[in-house]
Write a structure and sequence with these properties.
The strands form nine sheets. Strands 2-9-8-4-6 form a five-stranded mixed sheet. A five-stranded antiparallel sheet has the order 28-29-26-32-33, with no helix packed on it. Helices cover about 10% and strands about 55% of the residues. It has three helices and 34 strands. The chain is rod-shaped and about 170 Å long. With about 475 residues, the chain is mainly beta. The protein folds into four domains: about 100 residues, Immunoglobulin-like; about 100 residues, Immunoglobulin-like; about 80 residues, Immunoglobulin-like, CATH 2.60.40; about 120 residues, ntegrin, alpha v. Chain A, domain 4 (Immunoglobulin-like, Sandwich), CATH 2.60.40.1530. The longest helix is centred in the first third of the chain and has 23 residues.
C-alpha cells in the first residue's frame, strides 16, 4: 500500500514539472538596456526595456524579484495568445546590494496565472557618486588671466540639478546647473592679477564638491600653472638742478627671474651722482662709466634703484670760481689797495675811543696819491697822531681828513692812523665810512675805496689813551 502512494506522488511531481517546463517555453523574453547605472548613495533605478511574447493561451502576468530588488510596474498585465507586450521596467536595488560597487546580476521572475513562473536575469552596474563625474581644470596660462574648470558626466544619467563648489589658490566659487548623460559643463573664471602675482609655476590642488539630491561627493585634482618669465622695467626721471632717475624692475612672471639694471654716466656727471643701492659692478668704457645691478626677484617682487645727479655742486663750484676770478681780476687791475681797520682804545675817563688805521699798498708805480677819510658825527678827532704821517688837512665842517702821500713805487706800503672818541656811549654795531684814495697812473686819475669797517659792543682793546 505504501509503495503505491510513493508511486502516485512521483507521478504527480513529474506531471507538475512537465507542465512548468511547458509554461516556460510559452514565453519569449527580449531585453535591452536603457540605463543600467545605479548611484549607490542615491535612490535611483536602473531602467530596462523588456518585450514579452506569449506563445501560449491568453494569460495575465506580473514581474517581481525575491533578491532585494524592487521592480516597477508592480501591477499585473495581460498578453493575448500570440501577442507581445513591451514594458519599461525600473529596478531599485536595496541598500545591502549597493554596498559593493561594480556589476550586480540578479534574478527576476515573470509569473503567469496559467503559464506559471519564468525566471530571467538582469545586470546592474553600481557606482559611487564620486565615480560618476570627472572634475578638473585645464592648464592656466598666466597671460590669459582665465581658468577653465570642467565637470564631465561619465554615465548615461541625466541630472536636473547639481550644486558644485570649487576652491583653489586661484579662485573660489560655486554653481548650480543641470547635466545630461555623457555631457560636460565648463566654467570660465577670470583671475585677478593681484591674486596670482605671487604664485609660482607648478601644480596646485583644486578641491571640489558635487551635491546631488542632498548627497555630497568630494574631489581633489591638480591645476597646472604654466611657466612664464617676465621682468617689467619702469623708469621715471624728474628735476633739473637735482636730476633724479628711479628705475624699478618688477617680476610679473611666475618663476624667479634675474633683474639687470644698467646706468651710464660720463666722466663728469659721475662725480656728482649718488645711488640708493651700491652697484654690483662698475666698468669704464671710453669716456663713459657703466654701473650694473643684478638681483634675483621672486614673483611679484620688485627692485628699485634711485639715481641722483646733483648739478648744484658744479654750479656752485663754477659760481665760486667766477666770483674768485672776478675779484682776482679786479685785484690785478687795482694799482693801489687801501684797507681800513678799527679797534677799541681804553681811556682813563671811560670814554668811547677807537684807533682807525688805513693800510695803503702800491701794486704799481703811482703818483699824486691823496687819501680821504671822514669822521662819524658822534665822534671827535683826538689831536695826537700816532703815525709818522700826519693829515695834511682836517675840515671840521665836512669832518674830512686828507693825506698827501705823493708817489709810491710798486710794493711800497704806508700806514695812516688816527684816534676818535666820543662822550656818548655806543651800544651794538658802530660802522665807519669808507676811506677813499685818489692817484695817478699812466696819466690817468683813478679813484678807489676801502672796505667798510665796524666794531661791536664793549671795548676789548688793551691800549690806554
Amino acid at each position: 500500500m505504501l509503495g503505491k502512494k510513493v508511486s502516485l506522488c512521483s507521478v504527480f511531481f513529474l506531471l507538475v514539472l512537465a507542465l512548468s517546463l511547458v509554461s516556460a517555453s510559452d514565453l519569449t523574453i527580449t531585453k535591452s538596456v536603457v540605463n543600467d547605472i545605479v548611484i549607490s548613495e542615491v535612490n535611483q533605478p536602473a531602467v530596462f526595456n523588456i518585450t514579452i511574447t506569449n506563445h501560449g493561451s491568453d494569460d495575465s502576468f506580473s514581474i517581481y524579484s525575491l533578491v532585494g530588488v524592487d521592480i516597477t510596474p508592480t501591477n499585473s498585465f495581460s498578453i493575448p495568445s500570440g501577442a507581445s507586450k513591451n514594458l519599461l521596467i525600473k529596478a531599485f536595488p536595496g541598500v545591502n546590494l549597493k554596498r559593493d560597487t561594480g556589476p550586480l546580476v540578479f534574478v527576476y521572475k515573470i509569473k503567469g496565472v496559467s503559464a506559471g513562473i519564468t525566471e530571467d536575469t538582469l545586470s546592474i552596474n553600481v557606482v559611487k557618486l564620486s565615480d560618476a563625474f570627472d572634475v578638473g581644470a585645464y592648464t592656466i596660462d598666466p597671460e590669459s588671466g582665465v581658468a577653465t574648470i570642467y565637470v564631465k558626466n561619465k554615465y548615461n544619467l541625466d541630472y536636473d540639478k547639481i550644486h558644485a563648489s570649487f576652491s583653489s589658490a586661484f579662485f573660489s566659487f560655486s554653481e548650480d546647473f543641470s547635466l545630461a548623460s555623457h555631457a560636460s559643463k565648463e566654467f570660465r573664471v577670470s583671475l585677478e592679477k593681484e591674486d596670482i602675482a605671487s604664485l609660482t609655476a607648478g601644480k596646485y590642488l583644486m578641491s571640489s564638491k558635487i551635491i546631488v539630491n542632498g548627497i555630497t561627493a568630494s574631489y581633489d585634482s591638480d591645476i597646472s600653472f604654466s611657466e612664464k618669465k617676465l621682468i617689467n622695467s619702469d623708469i621715471e626721471s624728474f628735476g633739473l638742478a637735482i636730476h633724479k632717475t628711479v628705475i624699478t624692475d618688477i617680476n610679473e612672471g611666475n618663476l624667479p627671474a634675474v633683474s639687470n639694471i644698467l646706468v651710464k654716466k660720463n666722466i663728469i656727471s659721475r662725480l656728482f651722482t649718488t645711488f640708493s643701492v651700491e652697484p654690483s659692478d662698475v666698468k669704464r668704457e671710453g669716456s663713459s662709466v657703466n654701473y650694473y645691478w643684478q638681483r634675483e626677484l621672486r614673483p611679484s617682487e620688485s627692485f628699485t634703484v634711485k639715481v641722483t645727479t646733483n648739478w648744484l655742486y658744479p654750479l656752485i663750484i663754477i659760481l665760486v670760481a667766477v666770483v674768485l676770478g672776478f675779484f682776482f681780476s679786479l685785484y690785478r687791475r687795482t694799482h693801489l689797495l687801501i684797507t681800513k681797520r678799527v679797534n677799541f682804545i681804553r681811556t682813563k675817563g671811560g670814554e668811547f675811543a677807537l684807533r682807525v688805521s688805513l693800510h695803503i699798498t702800491a701794486k704799481a708805480n703811482v703818483d699824486r696819491i691823496k687819501v680821504y677819510d671822514r669822521i662819524p658825527a658822534v665822534a671827535k678827532l683826538y689831536d695826537r697822531y700816532e703815525s709818522s704821517i700826519s693829515p695834511e688837512k682836517f675840515d671840521p665842517m665836512t669832518r674830512r681828513l686828507t693825506w698827501n702821500l705823493g708817489a709810491l713805487d710798486s710794493g711800497e706800503q704806508r700806514v695812516l692812523s688816527y684816534i676818535i672818541y666820543s662822550k656818548v656811549g655806543v651800544v651794538g654795531k658802530f660802522e665807519l665810512p669808507r676811506a677813499t684814495v685818489v692817484y695817478e697812473n699812466d696819466g690817468k686819475i683813478i679813484e678807489s675805496q676801502s672796505n667798510r669797517a665796524f666794531i661791536l659792543a664793549e671795548p676789548k682793546g688793551n691800549d690806554e689813551l
